[in-house]
Each structure stands twice: as structure tokens, then as C-alpha cells.
Amino acid sequence: MNVFVLSTGRCGSTTFERACSHITNYTAGHESRAGALGAERFRYPERHIESDNRLSWVLGRLDRAYGDRAFYVHLTREEGLVARSWARRAHAGIMSAYRHAILWHCPPQAQAMDVARDYVDTVGENIRLFLRDKRNRMDFRLEYAREDFTEFWRRIGAEGDLQAALAEFDVTHNAGWDRRPAAPPGLARRLGGKLYRLARKLPVFIRNA
In the 8-state DSSP scheme, what is residue 159? Predict the structure, then answer.
């Protein structure tokens, strides 16, 4: 059985994968096939746990590939905190794509927080609709991570070091810009976005040099 962890992002998806790395009878990955095309996008190994918020945009294809044969987790966090985290990334990645490609005619004066709330609501409802007819599913609230992960462990028949897995939720993973003040407007914001994207891609440049 495969397991898919669906979320908006910025709600503990990296931490969830780290916790799952302590499970010995499943493999675990975080966005491990996010760049693959066609059928390769869903060619996960058997007994694999995948945490990837981008799956929320390909749910129809995920259903075609796995349907009711997989176990699904809807990972959530208090929506205001998630939106605030995404608002700090308003000029890069998914938030930039959502504002300029999905919304398209979003007014330029729209506040980053309002766009982020719209994104969080959209993705959350996409996931809830997808899961409506799934038999093997559970809601996972980051605020109750220890209790919910223990239940998750039981429901998938996990083996390994549960205490080490639970300890991962005491560590802040992939906090990134959450610790920084909100990005300044204008040129400084655009420059910050370029530097952020460069830092994200630098390891790939080095590896492929």
C-alpha cells in the first residue's frame, strides 16, 4: 500500500517525511517526483510514503493512478499561520504562479496575505473534494502531531522507532523565511526573490557543473 500526504504546504510536510524516515517497512520521500512528466510522475515504489503539496494540483491523475488503493493523509495547520507563511513567499514559487498564472487578472494592489488566504482555501477544498469518496484516509492536524502520528502509525501498520519519529515534530524543518520579517515592497522585494531562487538552485548548479 502506498501513502500520500496531501497539503497546502507550509504546514509540516517536510517534518512529516522526516518522521516517516524512522519507519522501517516503508520508504519515504518529500517531493521526490515533483519534476517528473507523464506516468513517471506517479511511479512511486511499493510501500512508499510521499509528502508533496504539489500533488494537490494533479489530483485527477493521482486518482487515476492509485484511486482507492492508497492511504491518504490530509495534513493541515491553522490556516492563518499557513497563509502568513505563504505571504512571506509572495514573489516566488507557487505563490507567484498562483497570483500571476492561476488568478491571472489579480489586481496589482491585492495584498499578499489576501492572495495567500485565497490559495490556502483553494488547495484545501481541492483536497477535501478529492478525499470525499476515499475509504482509507485520515485528517492530520499539525497542532496535534504526536497524537495524530501515533494513530497514523497504527493505521498503516508501521514498524520502526516511533519515539524517534515523534521527536521530529519537536524540530523545526524548512522554516526558511518564516523567521524573517515580511519582505519590503518594490525593488527590494524583487531582489530578495531573485536571491532566494538563486540560493534554492545553487546546489543543482554545483551538482551539474
Answer: -
- The span from the CA of 101 to the CA of 123, in Å, is 15
Residue 189 one-letter amino acid: R
Write the pLDDT tens digit of every residue in 90-145: 999 999 999 999 999 999 999 999 999 999 999 999 999 999 999 999 999 999 99
Residue-number span of the structural domain to which 177 is assigned = 3-208
What is this structure's pTM? 0.83
Q: How far is CA 44 from CA 40, 50, 56, 70, in A?
A: 8, 8, 16, 12
CB 13 within 8 Å of CB 59: no
Count the domains in the chain. 1
CATH of the domain at 36: 3.40.50.300
Sole residue written with cell 515580511: 182
